[in-house]
Write a sequence for this structure.
């Protein structure tokens, strides 16, 4: 819908253009440049470029919802002071880092508590959302596991689920008969001889 209206606007502007300035030029190159300039002006007006959103200076790749911009800036200052403390370990640098580290840790803890308290109050009637957050905090998110691979007695690697299931089933089906055969072939009873 928006694209159709932009097209209609562009078409209207092109049709209403007189192109007098382009015709008034003496050389073909000048006429073409003026034509291109006018065409581009109308095109840019009808189809404006979307400007990218201005990115904050210290935004993280994986931003935490409780980290406010001022706290991200404080954490960036802490990181800077940490590197300064490592490069030049003077008493002043160590004291400055320890002070901002204590401040940042305290503010992060307070921000986390405030965020989760507000979240649980908003979703007090929705236990599904509460458990989603609890599980994410405890890193109990379901993750994709790699397929099971099993080596058979010939040294071949089985990776298809049906082959692995058949091999496991065969093993547990025949284990009792194999153990019984081992026990019956022994001459002396020794329970620890397996």
């Amino acid at each position: 819908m928006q694209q159709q209206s932009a097209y209609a606007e562009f078409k209207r502007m092109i049709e209403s253009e007189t192109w007098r300035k382009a015709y008034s030029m003496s050389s073909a190159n000048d006429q073409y440049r003026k034509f291109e300039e006018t065409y581009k002006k109308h095109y840019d007006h009808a189809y404006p470029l979307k400007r990218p959103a201005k990115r904050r200076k210290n935004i993280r790749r994986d931003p935490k919802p409780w980290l406010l911009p001022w706290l991200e800036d404080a954490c960036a200052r802490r990181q800077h002071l940490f590197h300064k403390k490592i490069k030049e370990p003077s008493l002043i640098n160590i004291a400055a880092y320890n002070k901002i580290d204590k401040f940042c840790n305290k503010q992060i803890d307070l921000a986390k508590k405030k965020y989760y308290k507000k979240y649980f109050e908003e979703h007090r009637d929705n236990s599904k959302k509460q458990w989603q957050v609890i599980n994410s905090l405890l890193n109990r998110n379901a993750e994709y596991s790699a397929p099971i691979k099993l080596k058979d007695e010939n040294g071949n690697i089985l990776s298809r689920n049906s082959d692995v299931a058949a091999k496991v089933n065969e093993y547990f089906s025949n284990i009792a008969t194999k153990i019984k055969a081992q026990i019956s072939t022994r001459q002396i009873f020794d329970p620890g001889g397996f």
Remarks:
- The mean pLDDT is 84.
